[in-house]
Give the backbone structure.
Amino acid sequence: MKKNKKLQEEQMYTPKPEQKILKRKTIKELIAPSGIDVSNIDHLEIISNTKRYARSFFVSTLPRMCTFPELFRDMYLFGDINTSIYINPIKEEKSQNDLNRVINELETERIVAADKGNINRESTITQKRFEAEQLRDEIAAGFNKLFEATVVSTLFTYNLEDLERSTKMLASEMSKTLVGVKSAWGMQEETFQSNLPLMNNKINKSHTFDRNSMGTVFPFTTSEIGHPTGVPLGFNKQTGTPILFDNFHSSLTNYNMVIFAKSGAGKSVTMKTLVSRSSVLMGIESLALDAEGEYTIVAESLGGINVVISPTSKTIINIFDIETETIKDEITGKERTVLNVENKVEDVTQGLLTMAKGSTRSTEVNELTKQIIAESVAEEYAALGITSNPNSLYVQDSAGIVRGDMFSRQKKKMPTIGSWYRRIQAKAQDNKNSDYQFHYSYLLKVMKQYIREYDGQMAYFDGQSTFELLEGAPFINLDISQLEERFARPLAQQILLSWIWEKFVKKNSEDKKKAAKKRVLVDEAWMLLPYPEAVDFLNKMARRARKRNVSLAIISQRFQDFYEKPEAQAVLTSSDTKLFLAQDKSEIQYLKEVFKLSEGEANFLVTCQRGEGLLKVGADTAILKITPTRKEFEFVETNLNQLAKMKK
C-alpha cells in the first residue's frame, strides 16, 4: 500500500509530456553569447546571432611625460573598443624601499660612468637620481603616492580583415603619444576576461605611476568645442558654456557642413538660426535651395531676395548660363580671368542627361545618347562664338572689338534648351548612321516636355534667365517647393546647383582677402541621391567650394540613403563640421558605424529632445543645445501648432 501511495504521489507531481515547464533564464544566460572560440592565439571569435572577432591588447610602453587628458584619449575614442584600467596603490613602506634601492643603483651606475669618462651618461643618471630622490621625499611628506596600473583593451570587428586594419590603425594612433600597445599573443582569453566588468585582472603587465601621472589616465573630460570667433550657435550641455562657431575658421580643413536629423528634430530651425546670426554678425552671404518653402520668411526678415520657381511662375533660370571666373596663377600668383567652356558643356550635358532619363531613370539612355547631347551642347556655344576667351561672352562691333568697361558691356544671349532641341531636330534629319537613329528619336520624344515652344509641362528652364543674382544680398532663397516632388524637384535641385555654381560660387575670388564669405544651403538633399549625375555634381561642388571661400551645407533626414550610396559619401568626407540632431532608431546604427560614435552618444541621439544634438568639428565633439531667441522664433519656427500659438 505504501508503495502504491508513493507511486500515486510521483504521478501527481510528474508533468505529462504535453505539459511544458517554462524555466526562467538567468541574466548571464540572457546576455551571454552562444559561445566564444578561444582556439586562436591572436584573437577570439564570439559566436552569437552575428559572428564577431575580438583582439585584446595591453599597454607595453609609456612616455616619460604626458598631459591630461591626452595619454589614452585616442584609445578611449577608437571606434568599437573596450578599455579597462586596474589601479592598485602601493604602500608607503614599499614605495620608500623600492625608491631607495633605485637611488642606490643609479648612484652605482653614475660612479661607473664617471670612471669611464662618459659625461653624457653621467649627466643623465644624475638627473634620474635627482627625480627619484624628489619623488621619495614627496611620498615621505604625504604629498605624493605610487600606484601600479595595468591597462588592457579589446577591439571588436565583424571580419578578420577589419580586425587587422583596425589593429594597425590603433597602434599607429597610440604611437603619436609615445604609448606602445601589444597584442596579448597567446593570452587572448585571459586578457579578454580581464577586460570584463568583473574586477579580475588575470595578466601581470603593470606600470608604476605617481599621483600626478595617474590622473592623466582618467577619461572624465568634457569636450570644449568651438572657435574664438564666430556666432553663438548654442550651449554645451555638459558645461553650460556658449559654443561659438565660425564656419570659415582657419583651423577647419574645409568649410562644408552636414546636418542629419529625423523629421521634427529641429534641422530647419537650426539652419535658420545659423544663417540669420552669421548674416548679421559676420556678414556671410547665404543662398538656399529651398525644397520645402521654409526659408521664405528668413529672406524677408534679413532683407534678402525670394525667387519662386514653379510651372506658373514667370521666373526662368537658363541651364546654359555661363560666367567668367577669376583664378590665381600658380606660377606668378597674379589673378586672371578665364572662361571654362569645357566644364560648362559637361555640366549642361549632365543636366540634360537627367532630364532625358526622366523619373523612371530609363535604361535606354546610354553613352551614345550622352555623346549626342554633349556634341549638340558644344555646338550651341560654338554657334554664338563663345570660346575660352572671356571677351567672347560679349557682343562685339563689326571690327570684332568689345566696347565699354566691364559694367557697360553687353552680354550675348545664351543658348537655351529650346535652341538645343531645334539643333537636335536638324541633326536627326541629317543623320545617316543607323546606330544613332534610335537615340535621336528618343531625345526628340522625351525632351519635348521641357520645351516652351511645345507648351511642355516642365518648360520653366527653357529661355533666357529673367533673374540675376545681386552681389552683396544677405540671403537669397530659391523656392522650388511648388514643383512635383518625385522628379521635378530633384531635377530643379541639380539644374539650380549648376546655375548657383556659375552665378554665385565662381564669381568669388580665389584670393581669400578679396573673396566674400558665402554659404550654399541644400535642403532635403536626399532627393538628389537617386540621380547619378546630380550626385556627381554635388560631390564636385563639395570638393571645390573651399577654394572659392564657400561653405556647402547639406541638410537631410535620411542618413541611410547616403550610407547606401558610396558615390555620395564624398560629401561626408568633404565636410569638417557635422551636426546630428535627434535620430530615428533605424538610422542610428549607420551613424554609429560611419562616425565611430560611442554607445552613449548613440543612445543620446535616440532619446534627445528637439534642438539637442551632437556637434562634431574635426576630431572634437560636444553635446549641443540650440535655443533661438524669442525674436528669432518669429521667423525660424516651422511647427504649425507652435506658429498658431505664437499668433494668439
Remarks:
- The radius of gyration is 34 Å.
- The first helix runs from residue 2 to 13.
